[in-house]
Amino acid sequence: MEATYARQKIQDWYLLYSDDIYRYILMMIGDHEQAKDLTHDTFIKAYNSLNRFEENTSDKNWLYKIARNVTIDYIRKRKPIQFITESFAFIPSKEPCPEEIAQLGESEEQLYRSLKKLKRSYQEVIILRKIKELSIRETAEVLDWNEGKVKTTLFRGLHALKQQMIKEGYEHDVI
């Protein structure tokens, strides 16, 4: 693939999808600065792997898949104690973005706090299906699962999320 064409394609994708990819990674790790770094790593990896991109594949799903793998690699490399302490924090960075504070209502804040306490597979499928609004097929493609596993894990994840929210004293019907 010609280098100029590849650079242009990645630049176009960056303009289209970088915010979505950033938010997805942020929801997975909870650190604004690290999410920015991993977003950039995602697009660098996409550029370096562009020759493996299949034109019949959704570019957005392909980027989500790369972002997921980059994020999982990052999580695996962190010290276990750091992962345990940070994974239960709702606002992991010390200073959240003002826009995020303004946009999050109390129920959304509770939802995200409870979501961070679920198994990673539940977090991933809920984020992709319910927050990022990917289809079942798209979610299966990003996670390398079959559609049945997406449906089952989503059902179980939503149930676990509801139970977690009840456990934490949330009384409204969110899910």
TrEMBL record:
InterPro entries: RNA_pol_sigma-70-like, RNA_pol_sigma-70_dom, RNA_pol_sigma70_r2, RNA_pol_sigma70_r4_t2, RNA_pol_sigma_r2, RNA_pol_sigma_r3/r4-like, WH-like_DNA-bd_sf. It comes from the Bacteria. Residues 15-79 form the RNA polymerase sigma-70 region domain. Keywords: Sigma factor, Transcription, Transcription regulation. Residues 109-159 form the RNA polymerase sigma factor 70 region 4 type domain. SUPFAM superfamilies: Sigma2 domain of RNA polymerase sigma factors (SSF88946), Sigma3 and sigma4 domains of RNA polymerase sigma factors (SSF88659). GO terms for molecular function: DNA binding; sigma factor activity. One of its GO terms (biological process) is DNA-templated transcription initiation. Belongs to the sigma-70 factor family. ECF subfamily. This is RNA polymerase sigma-70 factor, ECF subfamily. The lineage of its organism: Bacteria, Bacillati, Bacillota, Bacilli, Bacillales.
